[in-house]
Amino acid sequence: MEIEQLLILVKPDGIKKSLTGNILTKLSESRMVIIGAKIVKVSRDLAEAHYCHLKDKLFFNELLDYIRGKIYGEPWDRVLAFVYQGEDAVSRMRKIAGATNPEEADHVSIRGSYGRITTKGVYENVIHCSSDPSEAAREIKLWFKPEEIVKEIYPVKKIVVE
Ligand code: DAT
Questions:
Q1: What distance, in Å, lies between the first and last C-alpha atoms of the chain?
Q2: Residue to substitute in 63, 131, 132, 138 for testing ligand 1 pocket (most ligand atoms within 8 angstroms of CB)
Q3: Which residue ranges traverse the bilayer (predicted)?
């Protein structure tokens, strides 16, 4: 199996609902390692670049307001960004995150447990989780400087989980 990295964001609704602990606990079932972590006040440029594949969608502006926490205001207008690393990380984390539409997500998944659809039709799905390894590489570069990511963490066998 490939060692992969991916980007996880706890979105502003996750922070506002005090779900960070629950989300990280669920993600820890994957046994992946966190190699980058920070809180980010998301600029419009960053939000647009992150969601560039959705720029033609009718919900694009609402989506930008959502990821920037504009609809919640201070102090919820930020996200927690993490880089995880591990074997087969993307597909394993996507499974724990659940489907994009929170109403269709498995209800033991994070999005199925805590997500909802807003009256404006935006999927308020609590976390972002990279969808494939190449998208993950693009996103990690966008959100993290190289020096913000821990390099010497593998081989994974040396990490002892008590
Ligand atoms: P994902 O976040 O699962 O990788 P995506 O990149 O297609 O999915 O979409 C990014 C975000 O945009 C998603 O987390 C929620 C929102 N979104 C996607 N499709 C939507 C839709 N049809 N209606 C409303 N919001 C949507």
A1: 24
A2: 63
A3: none
The answer to whether the CB of 128 is under 6 A from ligand 1 is yes
Q: Is 63's C-beta closer than 6 angstroms to any atom of ligand 1? A: yes
Other beta carbons within 10 Å of 6 = 27
Mean pLDDT of 137-144: 98
Whether residue 100 is annotated as binding a ligand: the answer is: yes
Peptide bond preceding 155 in cis form (omega within 30 of 0): yes
Assess whether 128 carries a catalytic annotation.
Answer: yes
Phi-psi region of 88 (alpha: psi -120 to 50; beta: other; left: phi over 0): left
pLDDT in tens, 101-127: 999 999 999 999 999 999 888 999 999
- H helix runs in the chain, sequence order: 12-16, 20-28, 44-50, 60-67, 89-97, 110-114, 133-143
Domain ranges of the chain: 3-158
Query: Is 31 a known ligand-binding residue?
Result: no
pTM across the whole model: 0.93
